[in-house]
Amino acid sequence: MNSFPFLLLMIVVPAVGAAVVAALPRGRDLLAKQIALGVSLVVLLLAVLATVAFDTDGDRFQLTSSVSWIDDFGVSFALGVDGIALVMLLLVGVLVPVVIGASWDDEPVGNRSMTVFFAWILLLEAMMVGVFAATDVFLFYVFFEAMLVPMYFLIGSFGGPRRQYAAVKFFLYSLVGGLIMLAAVIGLYVVSANQGEGSFAFEVLNAIDIDPDVQKLLFLGFFVAFAIKAPLVPFHTWLPDAGAEAPVGGAVLLVGVLDKVGTFGFLRYCLPLFPDASRDFAPYVLVLAVAGVLYAALLAMGQSDMKRLVSYTSVAHFGFIALGIFAFTTEAGTGAVLYMVNHGIATGLLFLVVGMLIARGGSRRIADYGGVAAQAPVLAGVFLIAGLASLALPGTNSFVSEFLVLVGSFPTRPVFTILATVGIILAALYVLLMYQRTMHGPVRGLMDGQGLTTPGTGEPTAPAGSSGATSATATATATATATATATATETVTSARWMPDLSRREIAVAAPLVALIIALGVYPQPLIDLIEPAVAATVDDVGGDPGGTVPEIGTNGADTSGAETEAGN
Amino acid sequence: MIEAPDLSYAALAPLLFLFGAACVGVLVEAFAPREARHPAQVAVALVGTVGGLVSAILLAATRDLSGDGAEVTADGALAVDGAGIFLQATIAGLGALSILLFAERSLDPARSSFVASAAVPAGSPRDRELLTADRVQTEVYPLATFAIGGMMLFVAANDLLVMFIALEVLSLPLYLICGLARRRRLLSQEAAVKYFLLGAFASAFFLYGLALVYGATGSVRLSTISESVTTGGGDTLLVLGLALLIVGLMFKASVAPFHTWTPDVYQGAPTPVTAFMAACTKVAAFGAIMRLLYVGFGTDEWTWRPLVYGIAIVSMIVGAVLGLTQTDLKRMLAYSSIAHAGFLLTGVLGFDATGDSPGLAATLFYLLVYGLTTLGAFAVLTMIRDGDGEATHLSQWAGLAQRAPVVAAVMTLFLLALAGIPLTSGFTGKFAVFRAAIDDGAWPLAVVALLASAVAAFFYLRVVVLMYFSEPLADGPTVGVPGLPTTIVLAVTAAATLVLGIVPGSVLDLAGQAANLVG
Hints:
Chain A is mostly helical.
């Protein structure tokens, strides 16, 4: 069973599916959706089977396969997973069908075809699987960069009014980081070539000893790319734009999975390959992480646009994840990986439910909604669950991971941990404020029929409406706007009806809600998967696997220096 | 009594094909009736270039060019070695594709991109009459064939004088065919004059450098120069001469700061000619640069290394930054070509006199993939037209993807390759040259190159944004239905861009085996 090529199939199946969907003639949207959903479910099945085949007590990397790809560069098409990569693959497997279901009734902007949308989603899925499953640094890089292209088109073709700006910003930020990483990737190869045979294979690179000064340069090359991707403050400014302008399905995958490549990269590449540099730079990274937790939380509170708000909450969560990773204890690291999964589920659901709300109201502004809960109780309920999971209420999945991160980090990094704890309070504020303003209180904004927010305040439907009006397919937003105005002219005082979740929407949200609660109550299976891999990583970096004693680095002077700085 | 030098005809077969075809072309021009001329000329030029390609490949297959098979012939004036033959094959292949672009007759309503009669003054009544005529100036084919032959001689020249002659043989026809555009004739003629004047200066620099090097070493043969450089390095005359030679060659390669002609000429020349120049001239110029630096001055690399290092940085930055401000696609691709010249120099610097030089193989590969990609990009440009010829202003490309999804997709592929996104040939090429540079310790240069790539990516992306994310203009350009020649070019270049990105192994191997120079 172990020789069955799960990983390869998980890349090939969606890639072929994408080609098939893209080749469908225009107008066969329904068939395209069915194929896309079918393919994504096959991938989910493969991910589950791969998990079953994975032996938690076995080797670090399993389900491995390797084929020489470009001999001259010493590159292999090498795939394999450890527990960390495997749970990310599961996350990909769960989120993609959900996203396809959520985008089922989306109408494209202008004269575009939704078949293309689903083709890009499937291609993106293939790339995302590749990036987590690659055990060759070059291959990882290829997927890392190639992944940008589908996401770029998803944002640029199907996004909100400022989609062009957001798409280019997203692409360029990631590309700059990627190119810096490319320099480091090549540097890594050269270092390995100087110590024997040049290689890109992770296991070979992990075994070689790199000069500490060179390590620092290479670490920075990788770190910048991952910090942009993750994103850590101050490299985060692209995410709110991209997250807000992306179509909801794209945003879920962007924040839920794509950004995890950054934190995954820290764990997979920065820590094991450059242990000395990681220890040296850890205090600085932690400063960025904690600054992100606090700063992004404050920014989130100040947002008037729901999608931007959710994007900022993600920046804050990524701060927690980075804290867990750079605390160098197994507990914190396990918490961080679990956080990566849980954040994908919780924030994914939050994005979806916000998207459902926006699809009804046609506006992204918080001020345009109020009292929705009275008319759409199920929508409000799902919104509440997603919000509570996002603020890590005990009983939801995020609580387990956040708790593990904080408990695991405290022994080695008490000051940073205490500061980050403040972020929990802020998280409660921004989530609950948004929930309260939109779901409760008097009927407001769009809902009370008094009309829309004043023009010129960034009402996003106007441009989309005007452009869509010319084309035959009126956009959903345009329709919504038209209805709202019509109601306003008929009966000024009557409230506008906000329909509750449809059966399709419930089906989309249900698996995520179920996972939030299930993983909140019983996260042990995932922890069993993750822990050995994290322990191996922490062992590589020379931290203490137990996580109770301050780290025992090989370089005594360095670590004590780092400790003092951390203390300050 | 002067004895005729010993010639190895088999080794010179690729060159003979080209020059033979060019001479036949001149005869066809003189004697064939007008209605038969165009097909005949196209056939002759294709036979010449494809013959050159095939004979170069056969030569490489039958001889051990990296070992005993490599030789110098014609009394030491010409080198027959792996790198030379690889470059000759590249030039002949790209040249054949360019000839196909020249031969396209279904895109322009007047049935050709070339003027009916170049001698008629632009704007005169006769000129207006001819604008819609079916006639076409067929001299362009023998001229282009001569230029291709000159380029192939250029990369094989083992002697500075032969190199100079080859430089002129390739340049003079180019100056002429730049001025042969059917539309916007004044712009085209201005481009030709500008190119000629600046090119003449560059030739003069080259010639002066040649004289100084001869003065310092007593020879124009690269191998002899190499020996004198070893024994008597640091000679002012020699260094000055080398600097002037480099200036002359960098001009041809359109490397900043010797690039000022590039945007104007690229914009003014007929687009198929621009494609030809961007692809073939670049290959030829870099072939000569590498031969001069590696064979002639390889033993004294520290005289030229700092200079080339600096020029590479300037070229990358100038190309990437000025490319951002362009609103015309042909000018944008011109600046892109300047930036790519800088990336190529990064590969040239991956040279190690004592060991093997990964830079040579990497640069050979890069030249091939860049030539194919840029040729394809210009081929797409020839298809997007409005009433006044090609629509090259950026704003005219808005929403092209909705009008012509396939064309937009192909163009996007080329642009992504130029930007160096993985799974395209551009990435493989960039990776190869940067690895060569880092391997040689030039990592700061590689970091600059990577940052320049990121900047350049912005202007490539802008075109993609326009094509895909903007709404089409009401009076936008039309997308021509290409005839067979352009279709072949697009198919070959797009396929190569994709294949060399996904499975580049065999071609990289080929470039690796070809990477040797005889002195």
